[in-house]
Amino acid sequence: MRIVVTGGGGFLGSHLVERLRARGEDPFVARRADYDLTHWDDAERLFRDARPELVFHLAAEVGGIGANRANPGRYWYANLIMGAHVLELSRVNGVAKVVTAGTVCAYPKFTPVPFSEDDLWNGYPEETNAPYGIAKKSILVGAQSYRAQYGMDAIFLLPANLYGPRDNFDLETSHVIPALIRKMVASGDEVVLWGDGSPTREFLYVDDCAEGLLLAADRYDGSDPVNLGTSEEISIHDLAELIAELTEFEGEIVWDTSMPNGQPRRRLDVSRAKERFGFVARTTLREGLTRTIEWYRASLPVAT
What is the pTM of this model? Predict the structure, then answer.
């Protein structure tokens, strides 16, 4: 099967490509340096070059709270237009299946916990990441509409917050786990964190997410969005303490309450993924964090 992975050189995409290759596939890796999917001509050239039968659309412009606050227009436009291009070109080129990764940021700010897919439209997302979340949610509407009108097998998955080896550790754009790891590995005295530590998050190890994508591609053909996660939540305060333990950070953790907390709670109902295509996350948070910290330390330049 001819397979395209958009964002295949990125965090999630690179792990999915590894899994595809491990089972004998030779996916076409679409990197932004070669194909900027916000441009129709580049997206059209990708489909012409790859002639895909299966598309995993993972390309995204995304970051933590700070990056979302700084780039609301760009994150809305880029994510919306990339998804629209992929769907339309998949239709034009007769692609058999499209698997799109959405985001937990699409859920309303005060969604009842655990987040059920049926509550996706019952309110506005948390303000700091609403443009990104709404852009992704619009792609869900596109996938459902193309299924209804053209019979396209387009599915939409909603992963929890991802983490793992090869994550983005740039403090300007990273999410909370890589930011905490980098700060605590680099500093022996003090780290300053946003908010008060009370919000909760659910984290999914990146390799588990890649497994979920493959299972959905193989076994799921439906219009309903599907959560991918662990259904376990942890407060940012407790997460910081756990990462401090695993990195052996002995300094002080300071909470800057002048900065936003983000969404108050996140925990997913993951029953649909298990029922529809048999996905169950395998990696505990402690195990995944240990692997991620080991990878990050190994990636640092060796002092001379």
Answer: 0.94
